[in-house]
Amino acid sequence: MTASDTHRTIDAVWRIESAKLIAGLTRMTGDVGLAEDLAQDALVAALERWPESGVPDNPGAWLMTTAKRRAIDEFRRGKLLDRKHQELGPELLTRQEHPEADLAAALDDHIGDDRLGLIFTTCHPVLSTEARVALTLRLLGGLTTDEIARAFLVPEATLAQRIVRAKRTLREAHVPFEVPRGAELAARLSSVLEVLYLIFNEGYSATAGEDWVRPGLCEDALRLARILAELEPGDPEVHGLVALMEIQASRLKARVGPAGQPILLLDQDRARWDRLLIRRGLAALERAEQLAGALGPYTLQAAIAACHARARTGEDTDWTRITALYDALAQLTPSPIVELNRAVAYAMAFGPAAGLEIVDALTSEPALASYHLLPSVRGDFLAKLGRFAEARAEFERAAALTRNTRERALLLERAQRSQEP
Question: Each residue of 107-135: b (16+ CB within 10 Å) or e?
Answer without folding.
Answer: beeeeebbbbbbbbbbbbeebeebbbbbb
